[in-house]
Amino acid sequence: MTAPVIEAPRSPARPARKGVNWEKWGWIYMRVSGVLLLVLIFGHLFVNLLTGDGVDQIDFGFVGGKLATPFWQWWDVAMLWLALIHGGNGMRTLVNDYATHRTSRRILKGAIFAAVAVLIILGTLVVFTFDPCPAGSPADLLPSFCPAS
């Protein structure tokens, strides 16, 4: 009498697919972007809330002065991109876990992708095209760091 053959636990039910393992790279992205976001967010909070006059210093002129500096532009864009892609990837994971029909899953993931893409494009445009000193504005409405027109 031969013993029954028991397959090894966690053996794949079907052969592994060839190509890029997007779930693995999504998982890695979540960990790496989470750590980077912690650094970016706490740096942002430290500069905005703890240096200078604290929260009292935040006004249009403060934000305009920060966004006039390429360092802070890239800091904010990195924070924006990482946070939106991180959140979109998390929502994609939830849709994969809870959406039962293929059609609804595709529609939801398409909506998530579209929302993330639109917000990234608009946010990046705002950061890089923001002009706190628009030409032709009355001098009394401009921040103190703008040259008088």
Automatic annotation (TrEMBL):
A single Gene Ontology CC term: membrane
GO molecular function (one): metal ion binding
Top-level division of the source organism's lineage: Bacteria
Subcellular location: Membrane
Gene3D superfamilies: Fumarate reductase/succinate dehydrogenase, transmembrane subunit
Assigned keywords, A-Z: Heme, Iron, Membrane, Metal-binding, Transmembrane, Transmembrane helix
TM helices/strands, residue ranges: 28-51, 71-89, 110-130
One Pfam family from the record: Sdh_cyt
Protein name: Succinate dehydrogenase
Species the sequence originates in: Orlajensenia flava
Lineage, uppermost ranks: Bacteria, Bacillati, Actinomycetota, Actinomycetes, Micrococcales
